[in-house]
Every structure is written in structure tokens, then in C-alpha cells.
Design a protein that fits this description.
Length: 571
């Protein structure tokens, strides 16, 4: 499917010019700074040098003092404390963080991760009943709970208090917890609204540490867990998140916790500098796989372990869960693609809605994402669970999926999510009606341009602009993520130097060597999935490339390479 290249509008030229002279970074990098909302040398200095001193005061968050005082009371009275979290990466890292830190001050502490299939997302009645049986009087809920009004009331009647640390949007009514820590609360003036769930947990620990005068070193011993949550939950890596991600990446590279160290080992990325992409594609999926295939509690057990042999054994088990997950993902995706390919009516729709009762609930969200990438339209994948139909939905850039599903709510038992991803539950007899309604709603509201994949381009440059000095400053834009995506460049009218070839098991990729007519500079690159273009590239005609600039891991003489994401030839 052909992609649109959308060149970002030029920022304020005065701001761009002012930033271009900052440390002599030049006009191209000055533009990148301005595009990221940076307006002064002071802001540029803070952007390039994230520092702990720029973290916000945690007591600016609504209910923070109440939360700290309740924890202090629990410690003083020797109460049983339960750390509760969701089964995904954000939830399990949150639990590992708060449990590991608070156990330094209190021995009567345990953790709980709900079962994805038996209990589902969020706070469960089963967990509250079990907490009562175990004499728990305080639960700290992480990455969930902000909408659990009835569940918190149920717990309160049993004499169990809750501190909620969440980052999802609250409903009209807040739960009756001792404290509801959520920067998205309408009455919360905390300046950073986009923390991960683990980030909110970190702010609670930061406040506790400040209250007690605990050395910062003890708190930041676990900062690598926060970085893993930020990357895996795809929250904006700007402001406070950028500081936490930067600090966490340094810890991950220099001295990761025992559990994360073992995951890095089994993922095959030990011995090189890790970045956000490594977390998203190598570390996060392995942590997630525990909750998808077995139990999220296994992930926490690994992340809190300080026994290297035990951690390595558990990492290998979780790695096998990830292999199982990949097999399920691959098989279900291929089956889904076949269903679409053999149904002419479905191929011409504006949506994809597929149901198979035996599809694995733990991977249908991943499958929905893969189908969205292939057909680039709002997608819902459904399976059967406990007599009901459960599904995961994914959207395309710029289209509000949540609103489309909301328009079908009379056919649903439950739904939730955000504009680009959602979950839903419905009765078996409503599948066909939902598919038709969803198609109708999307057809009436989606714009044609939203169904064509787009690439946001930061700037057009020449190959001769890519110098060691340029790349040195470009690397300082790390860590990348939402709000600070890896810069994408376009260069027009490049040529094959004569040595471009196909590589890969199926000869599906291109290994490029490129030049411009205006410069003798030769740059290497790789274009995944573009092997079919070799004949045209070798025909001596010019073409345009869209790419990011990476550090080559294999060529020390030419340490830069272009990761070419798209190629266009003149019409």
C-alpha cells in the first residue's frame, strides 16, 4: 500500500534561527528542536540534559499527602499491605517497583496480579475476598482502579483501605479510596498529565522518600523499571517522562536489576547499548508474555528477584511463553488474512471485524494491530471467553475508534479504551449486528485520507548534510518516543552507487549504497521488505528515499546507516 509523505510545517523561523546557533547545532537540528515545542536555549539545554533536579514535586499531585500518611500508619501499626497491579508490562513493573521499595521499610507486604482469563482487567472481587482472608487492611492499586467505584466500596465494607495509583481517565465518580492518585483527575493540578501507571507509583515512592528523608540512591535503584513501563505503555517521552526514561535507560545499560538483566540476556541484546526500541520490541513483549500465556505474577516474581540463577531460569520460562505467544500471533494473523483474502465483500469494507471462538484471548490485540498495518482500517478481532464474545480493537492514525465503538454500545455488554485501542464484550447473538453497525458508523465518519498510511517527515535534507557532527547532535535527541519521535528525513534524487543488492532468506530486503549527483558522498542503508524494487533501483534512474539515521553495529569504518522506510520513483 502506497504511503503518503507528509512534511511537517516549518516552525516559527525566528525560533528556528535562535535554536540553530545553540551549541552550533545548525539549521536542520534547530528545526527539529523547534518542532518539538522548544523555544529557547534554556529549554534546549534541559532537553539535551535531562536531570533529576527537574522532576516535579510529588506533593503537587492531589491526595499525595493522604497516601503517604496512610502508608506511614500501616507501617507504624504493622498492618498487612498488598501491592496490586494489572497483568501487562506497566502493571507488573509498577508492582515490582513499589513492592521492592516498600519492603525495605515493612516486612508484612505481598503482591497480587489478577488472572487475565479468570478475573480480567482491574480490581477483582476475588482479590478483595482473598485480601480479607489474609488480614490485609491496605491495598495499593497500580495502573488500575480509578473507575472501580463499586469494588472499592465492597472492600471498604470489609475494612480494607485502598490507595489508587492510576493514569487512565476517571469516570464521573471517583472511588471512595483513601487516596486517588491520578494526574488526569479534573481537580488535580499536577503538571505532568501523561505519566505511566508505574510513573504514578514512582511519584508515590518519591513522596514517601521525601517525607522520610530517604536517600535518593535507594529510590533510584529501581528506576530501570520505570523506563520499561514508559516505553512499553507508549506514553509521551516528554517532560518528566523524558527525565525518568533517560535515567532508567542509563540504569538499564550500566547496572540493571537482576530480573531485567536476565531478560536482556535471553533476549540476545546483552553487550550493546540499549534504547527505547529494545524495550518495546525485545524486553516488554517477554514481560507481557507471562500474563498473556501463563500468569503476570511470574513476571513480578522475576522482576523482584535478586537471585541470578533463579532469575535466569525464570527468564528462560518467560522467553518460552513469548515464543508460544509469537506462534499463536503468527498462526492467528495468517488465518485472519486468509479469511479476508477469500471474502470479496470483506476486502472492500472500511472496517475489519473477525470472529473465531478458538482464537487465543491473550494475542487478539496483537493480531488486530497486524491486520490494521496490512489493510489500514479500523479493526476488531473477537474470540469466545466464558460464554461471551470478547474483542480487541485498533485504529488508524487520526480516527477515533473509541467513539465509533461507543456508537454501538447498545449492542455491547461492556467496552473501554481510548481513540486508538479499545476492548469490548458482547453476547454471541450480537456479533453480526455489531459488525454491520461498526461498518456503518466508520464508513460515515472516516475520511478517505485517514485510510492511507502516512509518514510524518521532519525535514528534507541532502546526503552531504549527514556528517559525524550532525549525527552526534542527533543522538542527543534520545530517548525517542511519542512526543519526540525518531526524526524522519527525505532526500530527493539519489542513485544506486552500483553495489545495491538483495539480502535476507527470501531475498526480501535491500542493502543499499547511495549517492547524489551533487556530492561524491556514499551512504549505506537497509530497506526491509523492498527487495522487489531492486530492478528499478539498478536502472540508473533517480529516486526519493524516506528514512531514519541509525548507528551501524557492524561497520566501524562507516558507523552510520540509513534505515529506509519508503522509496518513491518519479512518475
Amino acid at each position: 500500500m502506497e504511503k503518503r509523505w507528509c512534511i511537517k510545517e516549518n516552525p516559527d523561523p525566528d525560533v528556528e534561527a535562535e535554536l540553530s546557533v545553540f551549541e552550533d547545532i545548525g539549521p536542520i537540528l534547530g528545526r527539529l528542536l523547534a518542532q518539538r515545542g522548544i523555544k529557547s536555549h534554556e529549554e534546549a539545554r534541559a532537553f539535551f540534559n535531562p536531570h533529576i533536579s527537574d522532576l516535579n514535586d510529588p506533593f503537587l499531585m492531589k491526595d499525595m499527602r493522604e497516601a503517604v500518611e496512610r502508608i506511614e500508619t500501616a507501617i507504624r501499626k504493622n498492618e498487612n499491605i498488598l501491592i496490586y497491579g494489572d497483568y501487562d508490562v506497566d502493571g507488573t513493573t509498577s508492582v515490582a517497583l513499589v513492592y521492592s521499595f516498600l519492603k525495605e521499610f515493612h516486612s508484612r507486604i505481598d503482591y497480587y496480579i489478577p488472572d487475565r482469563y479468570e478475573e480480567g482487567y482491574g480490581i477483582s472481587l476475588k482479590s478483595i475476598d482473598q485480601a480479607e482472608e489474609n488480614g490485609v487492611s491496605l491495598v495499593i492499586a497500580l495502573d488500575c482502579g480509578i473507575k472501580a467505584v463499586a469494588k472499592i466500596e465492597y472492600a471498604r465494607k470489609k475494612g480494607i483501605d485502598f490507595i489508587i495509583c492510576d493514569h487512565h481517565t476517571p469516570g464521573e465518580e471517583l472511588p471512595g479510596a483513601v487516596a486517588c492518585l491520578d494526574p488526569k483527575r479534573a481537580d488535580c493540578t499536577y503538571p505532568e498529565k501523561d505519566l505511566s501507571g508505574c510513573g504514578v507509583g514512582f511519584k508515590l515512592l518519591q513522596a514517601f522518600a521525601m517525607h522520610r528523608g530517604v536517600p535518593e540512591d535507594l529510590l533510584f535503584r529501581y528506576i530501570d523499571l520505570v523506563a520499561v513501563s514508559i516505553a512499553s505503555d507508549i506514553v509521551p517521552i516528554t517532560g518528566e517522562n523524558r527525565i525518568l526514561a533517560d535515567m532508567g535507560l542509563k540504569k538499564l545499560n550500566e547496572n540493571p536489576g537482576t530480573g531485567l538483566k536476565s531478560i536482556i540476556r535471553v533476549a540476545g541484546i546483552k553487550g550493546r547499548e540499549l534504547n527505547i526500541s529494545d524495550i518495546i520490541f525485545r524486553i516488554g513483549p517477554r514481560i507481557n508474555a507471562a500474563g498473556r500465556i501463563e500468569s503476570g505474577k511470574d513476571a513480578v516474581k522475576l522482576l523482584v528477584s535478586d537471585d541470578e540463577n533463579l532469575a535466569y531460569g525464570m527468564s528462560r520460562t518467560i522467553n518460552q511463553c513469548n515464543e508460544t505467544r509469537k506462534d499463536l500471533d503468527r498462526n492467528i494473523t495468517n488465518e485472519a488474512l486468509r479469511l479476508i483474502a477469500t471474502d470479496q465483500a470483506m476486502k472492500n469494507r472500511k472496517t475489519t471485524v473477525l470472529f473465531q471462538p478458538e482464537w487465543h484471548k491473550g494475542v487478539i490485540g496483537i493480531v488486530a494491530s497486524r491486520l490494521t498495518e496490512t489493510y489500514y482500517r479500523p479493526t476488531v478481532i473477537l474470540t469466545k471467553s466464558k460464554g461471551l464474545i470478547t474483542g480487541s480493537a485498533r485504529s488508524v492514525d487520526g480516527y477515533n475508534l473509541y467513539q465509533a465503538i461507543e456508537a454501538c454500545q447498545d449492542l455491547l455488554e461492556n467496552f473501554g479504551g481510548h481513540p486508538y485501542a479499545a476492548g469490548l464484550t458482547l453476547k454471541p447473538e450480537n456479533i453480526e449486528a455489531f459488525a454491520e453497525r461498526f461498518e456503518q458508523v466508520v464508513s460515515q465518519t472516516i475520511l478517505p485520507a485517514q485510510m492511507i498510511p502516512r509518514i510524518e517527515v521532519d525535514a528534507e535534507i541532502s546526503l552531504k548534510d549527514i556528517t559525524p557532527e550532525f549525527f552526534y547532535h542527533l543522538k542527543r535527541f534520545h530517548p525517542y518516543g511519542p512526543g519526540n519521535l525518531k526524526p524522519v528525513f527525505v532526500t530527493r534524487n539519489v542513485y544506486d552507487f552500483g553495489t545495491t543488492k538483495v539480502v535476507g532468506r527470501e531475498k526480501e530486503h535491500l542493502k543499499l549504497e547511495l549517492i547524489e549527483s551533487t556530492s561524491p558522498k556514499i551512504l549505506k542503508g537497509i530497506a526491509f521488505g523492498k527487495g522487489h524494487l531492486l530492478k528499478k533501483i539498478k536502472s540508473s534512474q533517480p529516486f526519493d528515499i524516506c528514512y531514519t539515521i541509525e548507528e551501524s553495529l557492524y561497520d566501524t569504518h562507516l558507523p552510520l546507516q540509513l534505515m529506509v522506510v519508503d522509496i518513491k520513483f518519479g512518475k
